[in-house]
Amino acid sequence: MNFYVVRHCSTEYSEKKIYCGSTDAPLSDLGRVEAAQLSVAAKKYDFDVIISSPLLRARETAEALSVGKEIPVLYDERLRERDFGVFEQTSCARPDGLACRYSFVRKYPGGESNAQVAARIYFFLDEVKKAYAGRNVCLVSHGSACRIIRSYFKEMSDEEFYAYSQPNGSIEVYTL
User: Fold this and answer.
1) How far is CA 126 from the centre of its chain?
2) Which is the CATH superfamily of the domain at 2-175?
């Protein structure tokens, strides 16, 4: 069983390094170019299903991945981005926001902690492994969620966990 994990393509928020968790942002012009390139690159992969975050930027990326493939695209809330609370739509460079980013249990005020995101993502992945045993699954998600997904499949130190950032519009492959 293969998991093909895709981080959605670029948005104006990601290009400007602004927190975009629950904001339902579309792909930027660059993101649409990346999505077209990703669609071509994904032709070499054999997905049985695509499961995406329901946020617009992930949906648009999932739709690009499904072009030319006759497979279902499903949506699951558990793949949504981490809720950045009061930091939503502010600079990712704010020191007070970074303190939340680099803590596993500290929540963004009004938002989520990495631990909360891990709980929902790990439960989701356990379900998908059972429901799609022996099949290939493509997951389309977001930066924080992709970091958590990686930690599910690969042993990581704290330093490796916090240093990891899957690029927008890229595919990581994990085999069970």
Assistant:
1) 17
2) Phosphoglycerate mutase-like (3.40.50.1240)
